[in-house]
């Protein structure tokens, strides 16, 4: 049953909040903005739901002791947002204009007006571009140790990468796996000294320097990796149960370039400024807020994205209240 607290704007009027994105951050924002009586449009994309639509069982989202399938969890979040009157548009946002108020978001050639905006477009995992990998995602290949480490109890796993994420993934995996091998293409890590030390002190972690994965092999599940040495170009095979790819993420900020401040890696920058209301999810444009993995490269979890979604919604509602004063 629908319980709508805000009137849908008529043609030419503005939405109180336009949310761009449709993962846990976006949908949590919508649950809060609609319940805060703000008319809310979610521009959710042609392919909606974010990274959880590509996973199987999610065991680390609170409230589901037996786990829940990723797409089912996203369907429930969307239904919850729609129950309170959020309007969902299954189109891609292709452009924005944040230089005028109301703000403009373009999707499928139409202009949508918003008094405030929440950017929640997320980030995509960077996968290795090697044969065999894509078909084994979820069947031994993963990009999230906190989500999947428990499936590799007493197994042998590999982590690819040399940054903080790879170090963190490797340490997390040692709680379950018997052996964790970090494979890195160079002879030094770019991770922080503290993270490197944790890895080097852990007896379960081995490191293969100057090595690249060139093929991922397995029928129903991952069986082995083909490796190439960057010392002498020699090749070898490496039998393994799990492959964790930790070579970074790409934030989905292509349409925001030049429109909002991004950091050097393309993530949206947050500006926590007491002078403009102390909004923790503010961007450099007043009235435009951000939540989830599109600004958070550290935690990258569904539950933290949802938490940021709640914060951005509460900030947007406070901002809308101040507009009326
Ligand atoms: P990152 O720092 O960009 O590191 C990516 C790693 O993957 C690099 O070592 C890179 O190798 C390797 N790599 C990239 N493309 C590759 C390819 N095609 N094949 C093989 N290796 C490849 O990414 P990240 O580790 O995800 O970290 C992203 C940001 O989040 C960083 O600023 C990091 O400090 C931060 N972070 C912080 C924490 C924390 O504070 N707890 C935890 C996680 C992440 P090269 O070194 O050769 O370029």
Distance linking N and C termini: 33 Å
The CATH class assignment of the largest domain is Alpha Beta
Number of helices: 6
Number of E-type strands: 19
Helix content: 10-25%
Task: State Rg.
Answer: 22 Å
Bound molecules: NADP nicotinamide-adenine-dinucleotide phosphate
The CATH topology of the largest domain: FAD/NAD(P)-binding domain
Please tell me the CATH architecture of the largest domain by its name: 3-Layer(bba) Sandwich
Structural shape: elongated
Structural class: alpha/beta
Quick one: CATH superfamily of the largest domain? FAD/NAD(P)-binding domain
Q: Whole-number average pLDDT?
A: 95
Poorly predicted regions are none
What does this structure look like?
Helix content is 22%, strand content 26%. The protein is α/β, with parallel strands linked by helices and 325 residues long. The protein folds into 2 domains: 15-124 and 250-324, 3-Layer(bba) Sandwich (FAD/NAD(P)-binding domain), CATH 3.50.50.60; 134-245, 3-Layer(bba) Sandwich (FAD/NAD(P)-binding domain), CATH 3.50.50. Strands 1, 2, 5, 6, 7, 8 and 19 form a 7-stranded mixed beta sheet that branches. Helix 1 packs parallel to helix 6. The longest helix is centred in the last third of the chain and has 23 residues, at 302-324. It starts with 14 loop residues before the first strand and ends with a helix. 42% of the residues are buried. The mean pLDDT is 95. It binds NADP nicotinamide-adenine-dinucleotide phosphate. NADP nicotinamide-adenine-dinucleotide phosphate (NAP) binds at residues 128, 160-166, 168, 185-186, 190, 246-248, 297-298. Residues 128, 160-166, 168, 185-186, 190, 246-248, 297-298 line the site of NADP nicotinamide-adenine-dinucleotide phosphate.
